[in-house]
Design brief:
By secondary structure, the protein is α+β, with helices and mostly antiparallel strands. The protein has helices spanning about 1-15, 60-70, 120-130, 165, 180-185, 240-250, 300-305, 310-315, 345-355, 375-390, 400-410, 430-440, 455-465, 470-490; strands spanning about 40-45, 75, 85, 90-95, 100-105, 140-150, 150-155, 200-210, 210-215, 230-235, 255, 275-290, 320-325, 365-370, 390-400, 420-425, 490-505, 510, 525-529. The protein has a six-stranded mixed beta sheet. It has a five-stranded mixed beta sheet with strand order 8-9-10-1-11, covered by helices on one side. Strands 4-5-7-6 form a four-stranded antiparallel beta sheet, covered by helices on one side. Mean pLDDT is about 90; it is low at about 1-35.
Amino acid sequence: MTNRRIAAALISAVGLLSVAACSGGTSADGTGNTSASTAVLTVASSASVTTWDPVASFSTEAMYMGNLYEPLLWKNPAGSDEDYTPALATAWTTSDDGLTWTFDIREGVTFHTGEALDAAAVQQSLEAAKERGGASFIWAPVETIEATSDTEVVMELSYAAPVDLIVSSTYGAWIVAPSALDAAAKDEKYFESGIDAGTGPYALESYTAGEKVVLKKYDDYWNAEEAATYETVDVAITSDAVTAQQMLTAGEVKYSTQIPLENIESFDGNPDYDVNVSKSPFNFVALFNTTRPPLDDPAVRRALSYAVPYDEIIEVGAQGYGTQSFGPVPDGIFPFDADVSQYTQDLDRARELLADAGHADGFDLTLTFASENAAEKRFVPLIKDAFAQVGVDVEVKAQLFNQQWEDAKAEPTKAQDIFVLYYWPTYSDAGSDNLWSLFHSSDAPFFNLSYWENEKYDALVDEAGTYTATDRDRAQSMYSEAMEMLYDEAPGVFLYDAQAVQVVPAGLEVPTANENYPFTAFFAGFEPA
């Protein structure tokens, strides 16, 4: 888990909520027909590549990976008629006890290397993900993976777990050609020159580090209905969002995956663009250091929770593109529950609780946030100002996230009082991730930077996880009870769930943004209107 969360945290520090990447281009004659002018989709994106190895991948190259590789299942957005869309598995079943999962593997699929997909290739890929993947921790419950025939894979678990969610993750479940896995086992740098070995609708044509990624349509793609419209996708890696916006408005690119949130309003109402807003898995939380006074007192933490200006934080930090959180589980991701209690700003109530707790004269606190995160930079002063109104003086420290994280891990009793964190689950189970990672007790807490310990909470979360695969309603009920405990004990302030925003040039068809794959631009779905 450590390697996973360090990587995720470094992404989160620079993680301005990117514009969801789904779009296409228009033909020269305006008819919408694919022509020479639409053969190439030009894109500006901030997504750099830390590795082309699909097993080791755990960073922003996820934008491209979902075009080159496929999992066994795709997780559909919240509210869809079906929870999953079959990908390289056509059907799947689980035993009543949730310990055995069987997947039927799709026939007639070829890798970009020319090899045929079969169950043995799936077994080899998932074993590699379990052994050395960037997100290998998600495979912890799986004891064995066996190709029982050319078209069947059976997984045996040590405890019941939602394998359907695991095999559909945005990290850690790609199916890779056997020859490439063999080569990578001999040479860990095998993929780094720009090699791909997937089954997806695009293949990697070329790569210039830090500058350009070029994808080419894979003509033998198995799914004719979902085959790519554009022959080529030419991505300019552009780290600055303002520059990317200028490239879009100047016509240098047909699409940009990043527009500064503060500039979205300039596109809203412009007939040349559509602005689409949807759910994302990202949320912001401010974690209280519960190891020392006065924040070791739940009454004080409740008081400060009442002092937070939630609506203003969303308006300023998210530029209006967010919703107040119901605990640490983002809307659209299991086990979200809109009936979980929320705090609202009530300064009089905050002062009353502080006085009752013996702090009528206030006290001093330190707050740290990631200086790279523009949203945090915008909303943290609002917290400082609101707390000052109830007599609490906050010293704000902006730090590079890796330094903020290192300081918080060093010695809890000497660490910050409030840690502002931008977070998201690795796969679509925020019970086993957010609720566990952020608040479960352990001898060496990883992202539990409130350092909060509660045996009843731990037991609820642990037991709920055992029912996710076999009785999801029961798991939901237990997770909801755990989230009510977080409201009551207030080890953190749950600020807002960030929304995904798409700025789409008019006349383009775009696929619905999917909160389960927030970093991936599914270019095969881009087409002229």
